[in-house]
Amino acid sequence: MGMSHAYGPAPDRQEMISLIRSAVERGVTFFDTAQAYGPFTNEELVGVALAPFRGQVAIATKFGIKIDPGGQQIVDSRSECIKQSVEGSLERLRVEAIDLLYQHRVDPEVPIEDVAGA
After folding, report:
1. pTM of the predicted model as reported, rounded to 2 decimal places
2. What is the spatial distance between Cα 41 and Cα 51, in angstroms, rounded to a whole number?
């Protein structure tokens, strides 16, 4: 998350790509991100950084936070939002499948059975 936003100005993108790749070379095999980080830019960063290591690492990302036109983050785990989120994450991460997908925040408006079903 901090590679794209949240803890002051975003660091240099190329330096962050190099850092992630260096982590893989040192044995790190699990990376976690979310569409809400940036928003969207952290998934793009992770996707670019890990492209040379497909099959060697696992990538986790999250759904359940929608970004409105004003940039506000809104909890939303309706099935159509989950599906849209996953489609965008697959594209940004440059993968055909997400290794671990989970709900970023519980949506009190959507029964958990509906979330799991989606």
Report:
1. 0.92
2. 15
From 16, 20, 35, 37, active-site residue: 37
Which two structure tokens, joined as six digits, stand for 14?
Answer: 């190329």
Q: What is d(CA 27, CA 69) in angstroms, rounded to the nearest whole number?
A: 39
**Nearest Cα to 100, choosing from 54, 51, 47, 60?**
60
**Average pLDDT, whole number, for the chain?**
95
pLDDT digits (tens, 9 = 90+) for 32-47: 999 999 899 999 999 9
102 is catalytic: no
Q: Is the peptide bond before 52 cis (omega within 30 degrees of 0)?
A: no
pLDDT digits (tens, 9 = 90+) for 65-89: 998 888 889 999 999 999 999 999 9
Domains in the chain with CATH codes: 13-117 (3.20.20.100)
